Structure formats: C-alpha cells, structure tokens
Amino acid sequence: MTLDEVIALLRAECEKAGGQAAWAKAHRVSPAYVGDVIRGRRDPGDGILLPLGVEKCVTYQLRSSDG
Hints:
This protein is an all-alpha fold. About 55% of the residues lie in helices and about 0% in strands. It has helices at about 5-15, 20-25, 30-40, 45-50. The protein is elongated.
C-alpha cells in the first residue's frame, strides 16, 4: 500500500464513522491528528494505522546504474 492509499482508507473509514471527529473519538486519537494525516501534514502512526489494520514497512532497493 502507498501512503495515498492509507489516507484514502482513512477517509473512507471516517465517512463510515460519521466524520473525522467520530472516527477519532472511537479510536482515542485527536481529531486534529486525523485531519493532519488526511491533509498530508503528518504521517500516520500506530494510533491510526492499528485501527485501520495497516502496518508500516520500509523497503530498500538497489538503484539502477548508468553504465
């Protein structure tokens, strides 16, 4: 999943819950934090990722060489 897909999932879950404030309250995070993640101001942490059933994974790959 990309970060954009996580944000889209969060948006969808907020809509199901009746809004960002309702989702935030149900999952014990601040509505401002949820809004910041949706607007791309902050990265989602465990308070958002865990209720969404998502975990953060970092990967690395070799760069292609020019020659």
